[in-house]
Specification:
The complex is a heterodimer of chains A (225) and B (518). With 225 residues, chain A is an alpha+beta fold. Chain A is 51% helix and 18% strand. Chain A has 2 domains: 62 residues; 137 residues, 2-Layer Sandwich (Beta-Lactamase), CATH 3.30.450.20. In chain A, helix 1 packs antiparallel against helix 6. The longest helix of chain A has 52 residues. In chain B, strands 3-2-5-6 form a 4-stranded antiparallel beta sheet, with no helix packed on it. A 4-stranded antiparallel beta sheet of chain B has the order 10-9-12-14, with no helix packed on it. A 4-stranded antiparallel beta sheet of chain B has the order 19-18-21-22, with no helix packed on it. The chains are: A alpha+beta (225), B mainly beta (518). At the A-B interface, helix 1, helix 3, strand 4, strand 5 and helix 5 of A face helix 1, helix 2, strand 12, strand 14 and strand 19 of B.
Chain lengths: 225, 518
């Protein structure tokens, strides 16, 4: 009786250990996969917005004033942004922000304005996106939102990149910041694809525990017989 | 044996629960981690107009105080007794009683602590708004003054001495003197010290070049600054540095070497005499000379352009992993002369730069035209533009005859065209005609060649719409399209709990059956 109880305890201990080990490995694999997907997506967004920022005609940004939304210069800039993002349907919006040292960012160009004046930002409108630090840091290099956010225009994941004046006078100073938005839903769908890992871990757990009990008790019965 | 199997099933179910708790299920995107769920990150929408006021730092100004700095306990005269503000108030003498050999002068003042003087002789100090001085009715007092440091001095003449036992009231009002602050508060700023590894990197503050590392950036208001260190051949480093008042924040970027190019490259160090020439390599602007460009091996065309000098053009073969020097001695541009003959009043342009109008003589002579191929354009209202590229030889007069043709006499037949008027629901769809992007709906496309064309509408989230449209000469073909919403792809759902439990039960059942057989 004592021997049988000890055997059972061993089986249970082995089962719990195997569950813990497989569960931990599954969690690790899932988390790593999530981070990798998010990192790759963020890097892709930064690369895209960085490349787009180099194509903005910097000289056209000078002198834009509130009320210039219908000027030829503004419309040309908006068209340039729209053409650039039209290469990728996932990019919903492209816009140019003027960023001040106090981290206030105001819109200079919104590529949706010619199409939807009521639903887009006008010149001088202050950005209400909660990515204040990301926008500010984009004065120096491409950045991306830490996570999707929601503002009055919808839920987005955004990337930002500096627009430098290097093409005109080679000083390399940042004139403005280019921002692009992708749908938060699309972003989440793309970066949350770890269900298969969980399922694999669960099945492995079941098989391992089942095997432990199956073979463990089988030997006892064989001995009894 | 049934009891252990039942316990085993219970344990497995618990394990499954533990797994689901430990690892968030997020296969369908509906339930995801807290960091990526947008609903968790909902931010209150702030009206744009209020945003700057909440984010802008409060500017602390050092307004000079109007209160005296040396007498902080004195209250500002906000309550004035009888006379209000003017210090030139005449003395009001009000006999209160008659009798005795001593009269009294009651001096009322709005500031306690002020000193009262009779003919510049100190008498008393104002306390609780009044100071009473006994005087002889036979005495002679001409002037009463009230003084206090940091305040204006009040002074007036006493027209009547008080009789015996009589009280004569004098009302004085003094006002604080606006004095500049004695000490200017120290400016609360901080400093950033930037030193890169390797040194020499260009340091940018908030996107603007400041200097080369190591560098100290003083007089910075407390706050955050976006810093960047950039060095040729290294990956730029960016950080946000916080500056605190009276402290030196450090920025120590360690720059990593840029990843090597996909294949070997060579460099060419380009210099010019004089320097500052614009360098173009294979037609692409590179910068101003002197500079070093990195190029893939092969033949490359270098062009240096500087105002007042002839373009310097040469071709170099760049070898891998080697550096070549290119020194361009720019030669002053050699000029020629162009004689443009055309209709009087026509405008003449060379390389898009206006040169003037054709005079009544019919010939415009243009001197100092840089040699080489120049694009000439002659325009006049009602005439077709005349365009031609003419090679201007140095020190030679080049005759140019620009014959303008009136508009409308072009014998070239104009092909018949029509138009397509496209509207869609929703608006803003991209319009493609024969796979060429034409704009966004709603739009009327003119100049469409007569015949059948394929019209394609694209809009994110909607099914592409394609239709063949026949365009007739001089007619507008209407096209109203209601686009259909694209079906939402069925998300790959995560294994439900019921399936998991069912799987566990099934596995346990299979295990039990196998055991019984054995």
């Amino acid at each position: 009786m004592t021997c049988s109880c000890s055997k059972s305890t061993k089986l249970w201990t082995a089962a719990v250990l195997i569950v813990i080990i497989i569960g931990a490995l599954t969690a690790f694999a899932y988390t790593s996969e999530q981070n990798a997907l998010k990192g790759a997506t963020d890097m892709g967004m930064k690369a895209t917005v960085g490349a787009m920022a180099t194509q903005v005609p910097v000289g056209e940004l000078a002198g834009l004033q509130p009320g210039d939304e219908t000027s030829e210069k503004y419309l040309a800039l908006a068209k340039t942004l729209r053409n650039m993002r039209s290469m990728d349907d996932n990019i919903l919006n492209a816009y140019i922000l003027k960023v001040y040292p106090n981290k206030t960012a105001i819109f200079l160009v919104d590529d949706l304005f010619p199409l939807d004046p009521q639903g887009s930002a006008k010149i001088g409108e202050v950005s209400t996106a909660p990515n204040e630090m990301e926008i500010f840091a984009a004065l120096s290099g491409p950045t991306v939102s830490k996570q999707p956010y929601t503002d009055k225009y919808g839920s987005f994941m955004s990337a930002y990149a500096p627009i430098d004046d290097a093409a005109t006078d080679s000083s390399g100073n940042t004139v403005a910041v280019l921002g692009i938005d992708v749908s938060a839903e699309d972003y989440n769908n793309y970066t949350s694809q770890g269900g298969f890992i969980i399922l694999t871990g669960l099945v492995s757990m079941i098989l391992a525990v089942g095997a432990i009990f199956f073979f463990g008790t089988r030997r006892d019965e064989e001995k009894k017989e | 044996m049934r009891k252990p199997c039942a316990v085993l099933i219970v344990i497995l179910v618990l394990c499954a629960f533990c797994t689901f708790i430990a690892v968030p299920v997020a296969a369908d995107g509906e339930t995801t981690t807290a960091t990526t769920e947008p609903t968790i990150t909902l931010q209150p929408v702030t009206a744009p107009t209020t945003e700057p006021t909440t984010t802008l730092p409060t500017v602390v100004t050092t307004e000079p105080t109007t209160a005296p700095t040396t007498e902080p306990t004195v209250t500002v005269p906000t309550v004035v007794t009888q006379p209000t503000t003017e210090p030139t108030i005449t003395i009001t003498i009000e006999p209160t009683s008659v009798g005795g050999g001593k009269g009294y002068i009651d001096t009322y003042c709005n500031v306690d602590g002020a000193s009262v003087y009779f003919d510049d002789s100190y008498q008393c100090m104002i306390a609780q708004g009044i100071c009473t001085v006994g005087v002889s009715p036979t005495g002679h007092i001409q002037t009463v003054s009230v003084k206090k440091t940091g305040y204006t001095t009040w002074s007036g003449s006493l027209t009547k001495m008080p009789a015996d036992g009589e009280h004569v009231a004098v009302y004085a009002t003094i006002n604080p003197v606006s004095t500049p602050p004695t000490t200017v508060p120290p400016v609360q700023t901080g400093t950033i010290y930037a030193q890169s590894n390797p040194a020499g990197a260009a340091i940018y503050l908030n996107g603007n070049f400041y200097g080369y590392s190591p560098v100290t950036i003083p007089n910075l208001a407390p706050g955050s600054y976006s810093m960047k260190a950039s060095l040729n051949g290294y990956t730029p480093d960016t950080q946000v540095i916080s500056v605190y008042a009276g402290q030196t924040a450090t920025y120590y970027p360690v720059l990593q070497q840029s990843p090597p190019a996909p294949r070997s490259t060579g460099t060419v160090s380009v210099s010019s005499n004089p320097s500052g020439a614009l360098l173009y390599v294979d037609g692409s602007y590179q910068g101003k000379s002197p500079m070093t460009v990195t190029l893939y091996p092969g033949s490359h065309t270098f062009r240096l352009s500087l105002a007042g000098y002839a373009d310097y053009t040469t071709t170099l073969y760049v070898n891998a992993n080697s550096n070549q020097n290119l020194k361009a001695d720019m030669t002053p541009a050699v000029y020629g002369t162009a004689q443009v003959t055309s209709m009087s009043g026509a405008s003449v342009f060379i390389d898009s730069t206006s040169q003037g109008k054709i005079p009544s003589s019919g010939t415009l002579t243009i001197h100092n035209v840089a040699n080489g191929n120049r694009l000439f354009k002659v325009t006049a209202p009602g005439y077709n533009d005349w365009l031609n590229t003419i090679y201007i030889q140095p020190n030679v007069v080049t005759p140019i005859n620009a014959v303008l043709i009136p508009v409308g006499t072009n014998p070239t037949p104009v092909p018949a065209t029509g138009a397509i008027e496209i509207a869609s629901t929703p608006t803003g769809a991209e319009i493609y005609v024969d796979n060429l992007f034409k704009g966004y709906t709603p739009s009327t496309l003119t100049g469409i060649a007569v015949g059948e064309h394929q019209v394609l509408l694209k809009y994110t989230g909607y099914i592409d719409y394609t239709q063949a449209v026949t365009v007739n000469s001089g007619q507008t073909t209407p096209l109203a399209i209601s686009m259909q919403t694209a079906p939402t792809p069925t998300p790959a759902s995560a294994p439900s709990l019921a399936i998991v439990i069912g799987g566990i039960v099934m596995a346990a059942g299979i295990g039990a059956a196998l055991r019984r057989r054995s």
